[in-house]
Amino acid sequence: MCRHCETRALSVCSPLEGEAFYGLQRLNHPVTFPARAVLFNQDSPARHVYTIVHGVVRLYKLLPDGRRQIVGFALPGDFLGLALADGYGFCADAVTAVSACRFSRDHFAEFADQYPTVLRRLHEMATHELALAQQQMVLLGRRDAEEKIASFLLALQQRWGRIHGKTSVTIDLPMGRQDIADFLGLTIETVSRTLNRMARDRLLVIVPDGVRVLDAAKLDKLASA
Amino acid sequence: MCRHCETRALSVCSPLEGEAFYGLQRLNHPVTFPARAVLFNQDSPARHVYTIVHGVVRLYKLLPDGRRQIVGFALPGDFLGLALADGYGFCADAVTAVSACRFSRDHFAEFADQYPTVLRRLHEMATHELALAQQQMVLLGRRDAEEKIASFLLALQQRWGRIHGKTSVTIDLPMGRQDIADFLGLTIETVSRTLNRMARDRLLVIVPDGVRVLDAAKLDKLASA
DNA sequence: ACCGGTCCTTGCTATATGTCAATGTAGCCG
DNA sequence: CGGCTACATTGACATATAGCAAGGACCGGT
User: Fold this and answer.
1) Looking at the domain that runs over B143-224, which CATH code has it been given?
2) Any residues with CB less than 8 A from the CB of B125 and at least 6 apart, and which?
3) Model-level pTM greater than 0.70?
4) Cβ–Cβ contact B46 with A under 8 A
5) Which of A44, A143, A215, B206 could potentially form a cystine with A147 if both were Cys, beta carbons 3.0 to 4.6 Å apart?
6) Which nucleotide is nearest to A144 (CA to C1')?
7) A129 → closest Cβ in B130, B135, B141
8) Cross-chain residue pair A133–B138, CB shorter than 8 Å
């Protein structure tokens, strides 16, 4: 039940109480997806909106010739369908097994119109996403491979930290190298080489499905340089 | 006066009528900036929000070592300060002479809370910006110089088209080559070479402060390829 | 335990774009 | 008119990253 949901503090529903809270809960259809399942794609009409509860979703755009740009990874608490528009504008599929709260887009939009506090929260989340997107534009346009990887790792570390309530030196990387490459505008080979060079230089250790940070200071320097 | 404003259809105020319209007009402080003037920068607190009426503003982020990424060009009708947050998150300065509607952020936020239709419109604009930002991420991460330039030119052509009510084969480029480079994640030399190669190949003609499109079909193909 | 598949790593080479430097062009002001 | 300044172009060269290909590690199924 929503009442005890561990990701509530992070999601759209965080500011809701009483009537509004139960109203939204009534609209909720909990769903789960196995790894690799498609949540929706680029051109399909946006019938639903989602809040991720567990797992990781990759959001990406495809060019006609198959090149892919991952525009974001959705983690627990993240909302998919912020635009409340007719199309999503990108594809989404599950990197790991995923559980989510699903809402009909129409019902959700109606609900948002009824409770301005929800709309306000939605706008807050949208502008936060926008700020992240702009940060990513700097990364994609103006940073080299090493800086990209360092920024990516530290950003993920922070996001996991907010989700779990504590920061860990071990950073979970549930997505594969190809996903990281397609997020950072690199090739899989460059990602692999750069990570392994960082490991050789004792900045970090590569562990199954993640890395462990050894030299946070040097990594920070690379990320913000 | 707002009543006859030519950019009204494009801006936040488009859905406003009667009471709300006059309420917002009362909050408006018209301002002008000469070319190169700074509207605000990265770290300064966000005291105001703006709607651009005339001219072009560049929005950018700076890295500590001076590298610059332009995250967008604001054209007539565009809104600066969508986040209604304490900081802008980027710098803004005038490319050309600019006139704008300026509002106190606090007053504007208060106004938005009072009129949900404004908040809704703001959210709409924010998610539109987000979609553009994601499109730009694809461009920055996965396209080559030629594709970047072609996309940029056509996107600008469309934006001017919506502003002027008619599409023109002459695309105005009020920003310099360095600005284009910093927007597309290239160097000024690559922008110059690519544009001149396109001119040599009869895709376009370079004119003062702009280009004239000769082969729209080939340009389209490059832009979406 | 073995097999097959998927993902990751690593070396070699190719290339698009960056870097540096010189030259050209145009507007502006005295 | 001339010369200053900012901006744009062009060429020669350097390099980070891409592309290709071979091998290695790991995992899940039988």
Assistant:
1) 1.10.10.10
2) B12, B79, B82
3) yes
4) no
5) A143
6) D16
7) B130
8) no
